[in-house]
Amino acid sequence: MKTAIIIDSACGVKDLSKYKDTFLVPLLILREDGTSLKDDENFTEEQFNNLNGKELLRTSQSITGEMLNKWDELLKDYDQVICLLISKGLSGQFNTFKMFANNEENGYKGKVHIIDNNGVSILIKRQLEEVRYLLDKGLEPIEVCQKIENKYENIKGYIIPKSLEQLVRGGRVTKAAASLAKILKITPILSYTGIIDKEDKTRTFKKAIENSLDKIIKNETDDYVIDIAYSDCSIELLEEIKKIVIQKNLKIGLVEKLPFVIICHTGAETFAFFATKVNKF
């Protein structure tokens, strides 16, 4: 059986040359003037940084027609399609395309699978690798989807924004709260479980990193690596973060930049940590 994989740009992977039978249907980035940009391989980091420095950017789901056209195109050459999309807790993307995939009249039911993956950023990249791994082992697409859903059903990671500026710009944190946090040197720790929520707070950014890693150590068992996702920061800061992870006797897995559609909301110098048991189900 020949199976294609579709990701959206919440994965952060734009160069698909290393990923067999994998295709990108981008999310949209919305500008202040109401126009939209496809977050695809042609949208560069330089372009994004230039816009993000000047405007309050927002995000939107993939164009419905573009996704459905991609399904139609792929089903001419592939038997089935697996979709790894941004978490249903962050976007309506999952529910929209799950509805289309379950509709018997359009011919997608049983052929297009939308994984309930709780995924974003580096999580989806891991899932992409794992889907490929399982397919290469000979598992049927429906079995692959079930294994990914089971593995990530109770995923928990931690997000630490060094600055609250972007969250203030997006209305997620008030200016007064951000000013008070700055004066008191309070750094929030956010949890990620498919949705983003408040977890804890500390007096320094370094302590927030350490506390997040301690929470992972306390909650995880068996062998795992720490995957790190980050937004624009200095090389020195990134190396400092890696050093903290190593000092906790943890092994570093993937280290990747956050996708543009996430940086729109979190801003620069944001770090996310996930414990990953590689290819273990």
Automatic annotation (TrEMBL):
<dbReference type="InterPro" id="IPR043168">
    <property type="entry name" value="DegV_C"/>
</dbReference>
<keyword id="KW-0446">Lipid-binding</keyword>
<dbReference type="InterPro" id="IPR050270">
    <property type="entry name" value="DegV_domain_contain"/>
</dbReference>
<dbReference type="Pfam" id="PF02645">
    <property type="entry name" value="DegV"/>
</dbReference>
<dbReference type="GO" id="GO:0008289">
    <property type="term" value="F:lipid binding"/>
</dbReference>
<protein>
    <submittedName>
        <fullName>Fatty acid-binding protein DegV</fullName>
    </submittedName>
</protein>
<dbReference type="InterPro" id="IPR003797">
    <property type="entry name" value="DegV"/>
</dbReference>
